[in-house]
Amino acid sequence: MHDGSMTDVAVIFLPSWPPERLLPVARAAEAAGVQELWLWEDCFKEAGIGAAGAVLGATERLRVGIGVLPVPLRNVALTAMEVATLARAFPGRLVPGVGHGVQEWMGQVGARVPSPLSLLREHLTALRALLAGERVTVDGRYVHLDDVALDWPPTTVPPVLSAATGPRTLELVGQVADGVVLTGDHSPGSVRRLRDAVEDAWRAAGRAGSPHVVVNVATVTGPGARERLAKATDGPDADLEAGAGAAGDVTQMVEALARYVDAGADTLALTPAMDMPAEDAEEFVRFVGEEVAPLLGR
């Protein structure tokens, strides 16, 4: 079996679940030994920073990932202030991610921009500089800062990840982010190609180390699991690539997840079935933490 000792196993709290379920699920995840809980800032559901703060305050060891904060919604100074506040209060436990946002949603709130790529580059560059304690002056196409520095920059600077799929965004992430968040519709083969694209841009930029790769993985358990997952990869409205996701009993699940580890995933963020009722979420995180993660080497 693949040695997953270097891969963290996380679970995702679906934003379709009500906010009052968040803390019971987070506590269950920590009790089960899950390393990370990931949150989505989907419009118009739970907010990422507010939810992250609630989870961090209600747990002791659990890391919290945000995948991702849509940059068109946010002034970069505010993003930096919020991230820095949580990073100082809970050092080493926050993994923030940003991204373009769903363009239809950005249009609904009047935040859609002509060049999402330019905005993401400017936001990422300024955000990482502010979190590093730098004083920033920039007059970009979208980001404008005049002698701005955080009074309370993080003592432990968190990595700032970015969502990406298209080739230009993957190149941008390799140049200016600390890693990439990949959506759950990708197969292991696709993950390998996308990771290679980010790493190529990373090396071309002369950066040391390597990017952190978070992969959301569609995960279906229970009766008819494999059939339910297959429906998402078949037909004109398919949400997943062929070969994407993990389904079945614990042995089948681990075999599928090991392929993502082999493809270069550093963090596997397991996404529950979208039809999973909120009241089943605690049992799901217990299954992941107590049965799946140990067989991946954690």
UniProtKB/TrEMBL annotation:
Gene3D superfamilies tied to this protein: Luciferase-like domain
The protein's name: Alkanesulfonate monooxygenase SsuD/methylene tetrahydromethanopterin reductase-like flavin-dependent oxidoreductase (Luciferase family)
Top-level taxon in the UniProt lineage: Bacteria
InterPro entries, alphabetized: F420-G6PD/mer (IPR050564), Luciferase-like_dom (IPR011251), Luciferase-like_sf (IPR036661)
Residue span, Luciferase-like domain: 18-232
Single annotated GO MF: oxidoreductase activity, acting on paired donors, with incorporation or reduction of molecular oxygen
Signal peptide interval: none
Keywords for the protein's UniProt record, in alphabetical order: Monooxygenase, Oxidoreductase
Organism lineage string: Bacteria, Bacillati, Actinomycetota, Actinomycetes, Micrococcales
